[in-house]
Amino acid sequence: MKKKGIIIGAVVAVVLVAAVIPRLTKKEEFGQAAMTPVVSAEKPEVGDLALTTDLIGTVEPSDVVYIYPKASGDVTSVNVKAGDTVVQGQVLCTIDTKQVDTAKNSMDSARLTMEQAKADLDRMSLLYASGGISPQSYEQYQNTYEMAEISYRSAKQNYETQVEYSTITAPISGRIELCDMEVFDTVSQSNLICVLSGEGGKIVSFSVTERIRQYLNAGDVMSVEKDGKEYEGVIQEVSSMADTSTGLFKVKANLTDEGNLPTGSSLKLSVISEKTENAVLVPVDAVYFEGGDAFLYTYDQAQGVVHKIQIEEGVYDSEKLEVLSGVTADDMVVSTWSSELYEGAEVRLAGQEEASEGEAEVSEDGGQQQEGEV
After folding, report:
1. Rounded to the nearest 5°, which phi and psi values hold at 116?
2. CA 80, 84, 88, 93: dihedral to nearest 10 degrees?
3. Contact at 8 Å (CB) between 212 and 70?
4. CA angle (336, 341, 343) in 5-degree steps
5. Residues 329 and 280 sit within 8 Å (Cβ to Cβ)
6. Is the model's pLDDT at 71 over the cut of 70?
7. Which H helix or E strand runs over 54?
């Protein structure tokens, strides 16, 4: 029994030694060191940034006249149709205002009265010259003639006005854009019967908000598009008074090459809605947001670390952002996004990393050369 116990103890000792010796002889392992973030950094760009907004505009003639009847009546003739070209003074239509004949009768009656008064005055002039009538009587004949002459002139003017009202002529030379009347139609002063565009070019009109209006000025060039074709427009007029119904400001722009754009058609245009000049600009991807605040990381060349800087943002588009405060044009702004950045984090610039790798390769090649020589 004693011998058996000795054997068992020896076996246990051998097992323990076999288990302990490998642990004592195993080389100690260390955790791999974390890699230093590699970033790109660049100085902010100083320049201009403009944002554009797409709007819908309407094609209009540069000179347009809307024609309304000056008196009610029945249309007796129509001499034009939409698309016709007319010259100034050409008769467009005639309207029976029911007043022309009456006005002519009044004028004829006033003319006869005036002629009779003139004949009486001529006879009395001879009598007055020979002393046949008194000065008071002669003066009365003079007054009668003058009153008759005034009445005739008034009647004649009324007749001419009625004739003008009944005959609608083209006030300018141009093209008939709209002709909304037919023979036997009854029209009034509130009916738009004709639209006449001048011989000049065409314009595009559109409306903008007060914020956009402050960035638009006469002479600014804008982009216009219709059915995939682009046109160039130059702003001609920016209204200084808002429309009472919409609260918007009307803008007119000349089209330098309007082609065959039909009057009244809609087209798309782009205008500057916001802009900044000589601004400090950084890439949008370099900006971080936390709790509604904007931040940038700047690179400290002396210490090889980054600093987290809160900034005030201004105008921005899909690529650039204006920095109003926080960094200057001389700061090195980290333009590479990384989740490993924080205040004081050590980083390496992308260019510096490539240089150090190149040096390592040269060192390794040199070491192998020396081993070969030995």
Report:
1. -65, -40
2. 10
3. no
4. 125
5. yes
6. yes
7. strand 45-61
Please state the separation of Cα 31 from the chain's center in Å.
62
Evaluate whether 272 touches 215 at the Cβ level (below 8 Å): yes
Tell me which residue of 240, 244, 243, 269 sits closest to 255, measured CA to CA: 269
pLDDT reported for residue 323:
93
pLDDT over 70 for what percent of the chain?
A: 83
CA–CA distance, 257 with 67 (Å, rounded to integer): 28
Quick check: helix, strand or coil at residue 79? coil
Please state, in angstroms and rounded to a whole number, the distance separating the CA atoms of residues 333 and 348: 13
pLDDT of residue 8: 53
Q: What is the DSSP secondary structure assignment for residue 346, as one 8-state letter?
A: B
Alpha-carbon distances of 260 from 26, 113, 165, 201, 230, rounded to whole Å = 90, 60, 34, 11, 13
| Whether 50 contacts 178, CB under 8 Å | no
- With a cut of 80, say whether residue 354 has pLDDT above it: no
pTM attached to this predicted model: 0.49
How far CA 263 is from CA of 160, 192, 209, 229, 249, in Å, comes to 35, 17, 24, 17, 21
257-272 CB burial, b ≥16 within 10 A, e <16: ebeebebeeebebebe
pLDDT at position 361 over 70: no
The confidence band for 359, taking pLDDT boundaries of 50, 70 and 90, is very low
pLDDT of residue 254: 86
> What local confidence, expressed as pLDDT, does residue 229 receive?
84
List domains and CATH numbers for the chain. 39-46+277-351 (2.40.420.20), 54-63+206-275 (2.40.30.170), 64-187 (2.40.50.100)
Average pLDDT taken over every residue of the chain? 82
Helix (H, G, I), strand (E, B) or coil at 117: helix
What φ, ψ does residue 296 adopt, rounded to 5°? -130, 155
